[in-house]
Amino acid sequence: MNWQELLQTEQQRDYFQALLAEIARQRQQGIEIYPMDEDIYNAFELTPFTDIKVVIIGQDPYHGPGQAHGLSFSVRAGVKVPPSLVNMYKELDNDQANFHIPCHGDLSYWAEQGVLLLNTVLTVQKGNAHSHAKLGWEKFTDRVIELINEQKQGVVFMLWGAHAQKKGKHIDTDNHHVLTSVHPSPLSAYRGFFGCKHFSRANDYLLSQQQQPIDWQIKDQQKEQQHKYQVD
Question: Is the pTM of this model over 0.85?
Answer without folding.
Answer: yes
